Amino acid sequence: MKLFHDSTSCLLRLLLLAELFVHSSSRPTHVPCNVFGTMMHQVDRLMSASKKIHGLTKDELTNFAGFEHRLDSLPRFQYTAAHFGSLKVNESLSQLHVYTQSFRLHLDWLKTTNENISFSQPLEDAGTHLLHLSKLINTSLHQIQAEVPQPPPSPPSLPVVSTAFDALRFSIELSERLQFFCDLSKRVLRQIQRHSRCPRR
């Protein structure tokens, strides 16, 4: 009888421990809701700055319509409706962080290229807003105790630019991809807010 009582007590303890484990492991990631509004504001600023990095007007841009894209090292976005319906906070923020680092690398490359050929373009604002956005994402990843992605061991191979015309074409391509990134980022952040039930401001 005593053996039965001891076995029952042990089983109850195990069940309680198992229940505690399930509750703790299934607890949703604590989302830093207060940072998302700041992030989206920063994305808006980046969008505005990215439209200006080539220094062309809308009419002047039409002359470059249909030009082949040549920066294969720029991020490729493959989000579908299914992706947006099943976003995970840590994975989504990590991916956005990777994108920001890639764009920063390309902006730095274009800036150096312009300096080498004595060509001037308004790149500073976009670089500044990308840096701020990257820091906000980094902070959010730390707050949810997620690992911050590390840069690849070797940078991508970027083309050698010898003329102002080529630099201009690359800046247009970079501008277009940055604007697409901004649209994507806002959709991702809004979806995370919605799923995490963050209060609207």
From TrEMBL:
Q: Which GO terms describe its biological process?
A: positive regulation of cell population proliferation; positive regulation of MAPK cascade
Gene3D superfamilies, per database record: 1.20.1250.10
Q: Which residues form the signal peptide?
A: 1-26
Q: Which UniProt keywords apply?
A: Signal
GO MF terms held by the record: cytokine activity; growth factor activity
**Pfam families, alphabetically?**
IL11 (PF07400)
InterPro entries in UniProt: 4_helix_cytokine-like_core, IL-11, IL-11_fish, IL-11B_fish
State a GO cellular component annotated for this protein: cytoplasm
PANTHER family reported in the protein's UniProt record: INTERLEUKIN 11, INTERLEUKIN-11
Name of the protein: Interleukin-11-like
Q: Which organism is it from?
A: Parambassis ranga (Indian glassy fish)
